[in-house]
Write a structure and sequence with these properties.
45% of the residues lie in helices and 15% in strands. It is α/β, with parallel strands linked by helices. Strand 1, helix 1 (11-22) and strand 2 form a beta-alpha-beta unit.
Length: 220
């Protein structure tokens, strides 16, 4: 097996990379910090051409924004949508047909609790919108590529101890925890375990699903 992780240089992505490599799996990392922009079709194509076609893909790349609909200008909107939703489209557009041609595979796309509840001004209107769009893209892939052996699922975490969480003030963190039935910040390694589980053969019949990890903030 081989795994491609976008956004694998830090946070949840880095935890996925570490856990998969610990089992001996080949893991390739596509990350802006390593010189490859997941939202750039030419850069993604060149990178994917240089590696074996992965049978597992974890798309974790993305950025957070801030501000409400009355505060975010078009440049900021475009930046956040591009990094989160356009990058997911570019990666799927390039890799899903390759995976199908190679016999199938599995993808997990990173969404957020913000996609479920409309988000907050702490992370921004563009972020909530982009992460909701990621779930729509995931479902489209699941419905239209399942008969060619490709599975797609999403994961929608609440607060996770990453750089995004670290930027918040104590007041903001307490506000988030105060709204959760189970007030707890997840560790990146916990999210990594769930992503790898969804990618594994243990979930061979699971596709089109969103796995919520948010302390009961969204009940489905």
């Amino acid at each position: 097996m081989s795994l491609l992780v976008t956004g694998g240089a830090h946070g949840i992505g880095a935890a996925i990379v570490a856990k998969a490599r610990a089992t001996g799996e080949r893991v390739d990392v596509l990350d802006l910090e390593l010189g490859v922009d997941a939202a750039d079709p030419d850069a993604v194509r060149e990178f994917v051409d240089s590696i074996p076609v992965p049978d597992r893909v974890a798309h974790i790349a993305g950025v957070v924004g801030r501000g409400g609909i009355d505060e975010v200008d078009l440049a900021e909107w475009d930046r956040v949508i591009r990094a989160n939703l356009t990058s997911a489209y570019v990666v799927c557009h390039d890799l899903v047909p390759r995976m199908a041609e190679a016999g199938g595979g599995s993808l997990v796309l990173m969404s957020s609790l913000n996609a479920r509840d409309g988000g907050t001004t702490m992370s921004g209107v563009a972020y909530a919108t982009a992460k909701a769009g990621v779930l729509g893209l995931m479902r489209h892939v699941a419905v239209h590529w399942g008969d060619r052996g490709v599975r797609a699922n999403g994961i929608a975490p609440g607060p996770v101890r990453t750089r995004v969480h670290d930027r918040l003030t104590d007041e903001q963190r307490n506000r988030i925890l105060g709204s959760m039935p189970l007030p707890r910040v997840s560790e990146p390694e916990e999210i990594a375990d769930i992503v790898l589980f969804l990618l594994s053969d243990a979930c061979a019949s699971v596709t089109g699903m969103t796995f919520d990890v948010n302390g009961g903030s969204h009940l489905s």
